[in-house]
Design brief:
Layout (H helix, E strand, L loop, with lengths): L8 H6 L3 H6 L8 E2 L12 H15 L13 H13 L9 E5 H13 L5 E5 L4 H7 L5 E5 L1 E2 L2 E2 L1 H10 L2 E6 L13 H13 L4 E4 L23 E6 L10 E5 L2 H15 L4 H12 L2 H27 L5 E2 L7 E5 L6 H10 L2 E2 L1 E2 L13 E5 L5 H19 L1
Parallel strand pairs: 1-13, 3-4, 3-7, 7-8, 8-9
Antiparallel strand pairs: 2-10, 5-6, 9-10, 11-12, 12-15, 14-15
Helix pairs in contact: 3-10, 4-10, 5-6, 5-9, 7-8, 11-13
Bound molecules: 4'-deoxy-4'-aminopyridoxal-5'-phosphate (PMP).
Length: about 400
């Protein structure tokens, strides 16, 4: 029996994910993948997981295995007060909500806010997972221009002047996919604009802790606390499989996000939350974070060095101070998806950048390169191979 006729109209419009289709070949044996977006398993604090587990059982007993509040496990929310304060975000435990990853937050945002046809302002390019969270609610996307310093404030202003947008979605630090970071002056200007136009900004910040050089920057939320829903996660600084995301937002919205979460999963996994609470409160994160940064820094340097050494000089690429991605762009006329298939033959994978745009025809010559999953020598070899493929194509 084929039950596809039962699918809701909106499900049919979602279609199969083209990017998922093309990335299927990445798991072939011998493939070096610069296509992933996941943390290195060596970044997980495996040596303390046993100790943390014992602590959780000792401290919370059956409470760590029981149903709990939809808002989140209270000791974790308390521990996050200090964590967020270090980023400059003032919030009480009651204002901090837990979700199943930042992805869970994006889903709740979409469910609570987006009605069919609503306009959402996004960077071009933007995080694909956010579009996947928003798409089922059938929004229309309004693109905002970016440059090497991320979102261009004038473009944001023009968008909010000319469109009635439901919200603005931004990844201001070490953005996925570009690795770009919005400098402080622009953050302040963006904050002024959202205040002036009484707009809501969704600030998605999974990567700011992964800084290999330079100074930490204040989240945009610190400049416009009433207009920004700030989202972060422990996925890149603890373990993504635990699915711990959190947010601080305008109370009128957070309240509804909690109500819709009840219908999704009642609450985030209590045991994971208890582990996370101990990880933060017991200062384990303070010890682990430098290890993660020291693990990724040389990988990123290896990729930047290899790009300098091998890539054709009509290519440009981002030089982020942290995060997990580098964004490369070739001359007009280059088709990165064609390069992708040629690179696959040579056992190197990356993500063609066009998938991170909401409008067809954009970003055809761009590619997202990830460096967290391979060692330095492999990264060097992969970039060399990729360059050879490109040079051959350009000829
Ligand atoms: N937002 C951005 C910008 C991301 O890159 C990711 C992870 N790839 C997420 C959200 C989701 O992360 P998680 O659900 O693991 O917190």
């Amino acid at each position: 029996m084929d039950f596809t006729h039962l699918l809701a109209d909106r499900t049919k419009t979602m279609g199969a994910s083209a990017i998922r289709e093309i990335l299927k070949v990445v798991s072939q044996p011998g493939m070096v993948s610069l296509a992933g977006g996941i943390p290195a398993p060596e970044s997980f604090p495996m040596e303390i997981m046993g100790e943390l587990t014992a602590k959780v059982i000792d401290k919370y007993a059956s409470g760590a295995f029981q149903y709990d509040l939809t808002e989140g496990f209270p000791p974790l929310r308390t521990a996050l007060v200090t964590y967020l304060a270090q980023k400059g975000i003032q919030a009480t435990a009651d204002e901090i909500m837990i979700a199943s990853g930042s992805q869970g937050v994006l889903d709740a945002v979409a469910k609570v806010l987006i009605a069919k046809g609503d306009k959402i302002a996004v960077e071009a390019p933007t995080y694909l997972g956010a579009l996947q969270a928003f798409n089922p609610y059938e929004p229309e996307y309004v693109r905002m221009d970016t440059d090497d310093d991320g979102l261009i404030p004038e473009s944001l202003e023009q968008v909010v002047q000319t469109h009635k947008v439901k919200f603005i979605y931004l990844v201001p630090t070490f953005q996925n996919p570009t690795g770009r970071t919005i400098p402080v002056a622009r953050r302040k200007r963006i904050a002024e604009i959202v205040q002036q136009y009484e707009a809501l900004l969704i600030e998605d910040d999974p990567y700011s802790a992964l800084r290999y050089r330079g100074e930490n920057l204040p989240p945009i939320r610190t400049f416009a606390p009433e207009h920004v829903l700030y989202i972060s996660t422990l996925s890149k600084v603890f373990a993504p499989g635990l699915r711990i995301g959190f947010y601080v937002g305008p109370p009128a919205i957070s309240r509804w996000m909690v109500i819709v979460k009840q219908g999704v999963d009642l609450h985030t996994n209590t045991f994971s939350q208890a582990l996370a609470a101990e990880y933060l409160a017991g200062s384990y994160l303070d010890q682990q974070l430098p290890k993660i940064v020291n693990l990724y820094r040389p990988k990123q340097e290896a990729m930047l060095t290899a790009l300098d050494k091998y890539f054709p000089n009509n290519f440009m690429w981002s030089k982020p101070e942290g995060g997990m991605f580098i964004w490369a762009e070739g001359p007009q006329g280059i088709d990165a998806e064609e390069l992708y298939w040629k690179a696959i033959e040579k056992k190197v994978a990356f993500v063609p950048g066009k998938y991170f745009y909401t409008q067809p025809g954009e970003g055809l010559a761009t590619m997202r390169l990830n460096y967290t999953m391979s060692d330095e020598a492999t990264i060097d070899r992969a970039i060399k191979t990729l360059s050879e493929v490109i040079v051959k194509e350009l000829r």
